[in-house]
Amino acid sequence: MSPRRNAPRRKAGQRQENAEDALVLRVTGAEQRETGPDGEWVLRRISGAAAAKVYRCPGCAQDIPPGMAHVVAWRPYGDGADRRHWHSSCWQRRTHRSARPPRR
Prior knowledge:
Elements: H1 19-28, E1 32-36, E2 39-46, E3 55-56, E4 63-64, E5 70-74, E6 84-86, H2 88-92
Antiparallel strand pairs: 1-2, 2-5, 3-4, 5-6
Region (Disordered): 1-21, 84-104
Organism: Marinactinospora rubrisoli
Protein name: ATP/GTP-binding protein
């Protein structure tokens, strides 16, 4: 008896996706628009493999270390100066936080 195949079988003539192509799609990603009570935002999700620098999350004032997946958000109309890197969970909870100055 042969072992069970977990991967779907390719049909004749179907090209297997190159690992480099998949990485480019994840790294560049598509920008999403999100509207909430705090206005309209453009989002880009950054994979852990693409996160190469340390950023400071404005939601919790903690570092986002290299290798951690996170969200980049900015206003759709402007020069991009308000572009910020957020922990994914901080971004999801941003509208539920009380207004307080960031800790230093």
